[in-house]
Amino acid sequence: MAQPIRVGLGYDVHAFEAGRPLILGGVRIEGHAGLRGHSDADVLLHAVMDSLLGALALGDIGAHFPDTDAKYAGADSMALTDHVWRLIDEAGYKIGNVDAIIVAQAPKMAPHISAMRANIAACLRADVSQISVKATTEEHLGFTGREEGIAAKAVACLIKK
Q1: GO molecular-function annotation terms (predicted)?
Q2: DSSP 8-class letter at 64
């Protein structure tokens, strides 16, 4: 019997890499080094996708979009998130809500949060009120505090249609 509510947790980390664009939640953030990764390295969307896939016990993004597959080199994480939404829809679920947090000392995220929420909502065919994106620093502690990279965490709730 299908469960009426499913919850999943996602976490991702990427190191900074000069010369790459910084893309978070599908938003290009100017004036800062980007993130190293096989795709566009959108750490926020990667955490969101993992939370959604986890909610349905469908593995993780590495299983669906392996970094050993050349077709995902430089892939747009918005398109990958759209694919994950299709899997959710095919399984007979819809988005209840997504709550995500970006952990980064820099750059400042506040000016970009609204656009990130709107992008994620559009990919997931959800209302923006169902998508929460927050940001925090680690007070100069750890790899994010030393500005070596960015981490993101997400929790997703899916509801049976």
Answers
A1: 2-C-methyl-D-erythritol 2,4-cyclodiphosphate synthase activity; metal ion binding
A2: H
Tell me the mean pLDDT in the region 108-118: 97
Is-cis flag, bond preceding 107, omega within 30? Answer: yes
Residues flagged as binding site for a divalent metal cation: 12, 14, 46
- Domain count across the chain: 1
15 by DSSP, 3-state: which?
strand
Cβ burial of 153 (10 Å; 0-12, 13-18, 19+) is buried
Domain range for 75 is: 5-160
- Collapsed DSSP state (helix, strand, coil) of residue 102: strand
List the CATH number of the domain containing 109. 3.30.1330.50
> pLDDT (tens digit, 9 = 90+) per residue, 19-76?
999 999 999 999 999 999 999 999 999 999 999 999 999 999 999 998 898 899 889 9
Residue 110 token pair: 């506040």
Annotated binding-site ranges: 12-14, 38-39, 46, 60-62, 65-69, 104-110, 136-139, 143, 146
The whole-chain average pLDDT of the chain stands at 96
Query: Is the pTM of the predicted complex or chain greater than 0.90?
Result: yes
CA dist 45 and 56 (Å) reads 17
- The encoded tokens of residue 5 equal 């509510």
pLDDT at 86 > cutoff 90: yes
